[in-house]
Each structure stands twice: as C-alpha cells, then as structure tokens.
User: Which sequence fits this backbone?
C-alpha cells in the first residue's frame, strides 16, 4: 500500500522525538452520525489528544492502540488500513495539518454535489471504492477502468481497499475520510464544507 505507507512515513517523520508517536488512539464505531454524501458504511471515530475524526467504512474496527502501531508495518489487511487511515485523520487534526475531521451538514450537500459535478464535467470519471448514491444517475461520463479515466475519484473505502496504480493519473480524493492523508501528502481533495 505505497500511498498509505508513504503518508504514514511522512507522519512518522513529523512525530519523531515529540513523544506523540507513543500516544494512545481509541477507535470506536459511532452510530447515528450525519455521513458525507460520498461515503457509506459505519463510522469509525478516532480519538486522540482531545480531537476526534471520522472514517466511514464497510469494514469497521474498534481498538485502543498506539499511533506507532502503523509505523514500518505492511498493513496487509483492510481492517489495518482502515485503522491507520482513521489514525492519520485524527493525528492530522491534532497537529492542525487538517481542518476537515467530520462531514458537513445535510444543508450543504446540494452545493457540494453541484461543485463536484461541475469540477468533473466533461471528463471520463472512474471511482475507486463504492459509487456514492449521490453520484448514481448523475450526468457524468463514466469510464470502465482507471486506465480509461481522465479523472479518478477515490473514496475512503476505495483508499483502504486494494491499491491501484495511479501514477500519472488526475486524482481527486472525496470526503472527510481521506482528508488527513491528503493534507499530509498534499493530494487533491474534495470536501469543501467538512467540519473540524
């Protein structure tokens, strides 16, 4: 998982000699939240240093662990990648690298969807991860593969799933679940109304 492990190494360098790398993170599932319209599944809420951040997934995990659990690990299981991405989100929020930790309110969904649709209009779109219900039936040009796409949209669960070769592709990560990784790696990210 080069993309995830590369960002974990970046985070490791940021935390080196701070003492935070041995900090305890709690991962819990939280029912009844208002999810991002581009995300599905259960909410894994990571808590660290008085901050919380969400990761929506079809593969929820619950754990209490140290940030350092993910350093130098292969993260071969989806659940390990989900845990790592949730931890990246909350630590990026704690370090004030990311301000997007939770989904926006439903009142912002229409404006957000219109903005995303405008941004990808006229391009062949491929989604890595489950197709969000908000995008089903939209007048977009859908590509059948990453190779055919002009732009690749990546959801949190898509990011936690199997890795695809995205070298040289125009990518855009969606929603608060991908915010921490994007903030650390300076990857293109769409979540204009996500909250801290």
Assistant:
């Amino acid at each position: 998982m080069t993309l995830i492990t590369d960002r974990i190494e970046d985070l490791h360098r940021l935390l080196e000699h701070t003492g935070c790398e041995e900090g305890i993170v709690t991962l819990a599932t939280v029912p009844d939240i208002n999810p991002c319209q581009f995300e599905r599944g259960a909410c894994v809420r990571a808590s660290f240093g008085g901050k919380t951040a969400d990761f929506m997934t079809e593969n929820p995990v619950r754990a209490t662990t140290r940030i350092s659990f993910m350093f130098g690990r292969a993260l071969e299981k989806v659940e390990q990648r989900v845990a790592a991405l949730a931890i990246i989100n909350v630590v990026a929020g704690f370090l004030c690298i990311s301000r997007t930790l939770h989904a926006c309110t439903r009142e912002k969904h229409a404006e957000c969807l219109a903005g995303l649709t405008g941004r990808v209009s006229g391009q062949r779109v491929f989604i890595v991860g489950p197709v969000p219900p908000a995008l089903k039936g939209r007048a977009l040009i859908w590509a059948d593969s990453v190779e055919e796409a002009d732009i690749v949209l990546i959801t949190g669960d898509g990011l936690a799933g199997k890795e695809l070769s995205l070298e040289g592709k125009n990518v855009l990560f969606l929603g608060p679940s991908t915010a921490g990784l994007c903030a650390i790696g300076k990857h293109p990210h769409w979540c204009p109304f996500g909250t801290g």
